[in-house]
Design brief:
The chain has 135 residues and is of the alpha+beta class. It is built from 2 helices and 6 strands; from the N terminus they run αββαββββ. It folds into 2 domains: 39 residues; 69 residues.
């Protein structure tokens, strides 16, 4: 009878130890998942900081490379009209979808007056792609 009681107690201890090990494994897995999730985050260009009395948010604005836009317009005029030109665009333009601005192209005509043509430029996405049309 004692042998049977000893076996029963050993079996109960094994079950309790097994449950404890399973619980510890589950807790460890949950901790690992939490660590992985906390490692994920955005690497956007905005940051924020706050104090007890004042909330302050700082957003970094990305500006379009307008010199590159001017160069593209000059290349288009050369390729399509076979004319030499000089294009001037605003120095600071926010690089955001839907932003519109105007550049001025001066076409140089030897022996004649130069012709100034405005170009309407539209930013098509936040990566800086643009379309332009001469007016």
């Amino acid at each position: 009878m004692r042998a049977m009681q000893t076996q029963t107690r050993n079996a109960q201890r094994t079950i309790i130890a097994s449950r404890t090990l399973r619980g510890a494994s589950a807790a460890l897995a949950a901790l690992a998942c939490a660590a992985l999730i906390s490692a994920c985050g955005s690497s956007g260009s905005s940051s924020s900081s706050s104090t007890a009395s004042t909330a302050k948010t700082t957003v970094t604005t990305v500006h379009l490379n307008t010199a590159r836009v001017a160069s593209s317009i000059e290349q288009s005029i050369t390729a399509q009209r076979h004319k030499v030109s000089h294009v001037v665009c605003p120095a600071v333009v926010v690089q955001a979808q839907g932003v519109k601005f105007e550049c001025k192209a001066t076409v140089i005509n030897p022996g004649k007056a130069s012709v100034v043509t405005p170009f309407l430029v539209t930013v098509t996405n936040s990566k800086g792609y643009v379309t332009y049309v001469g007016k």
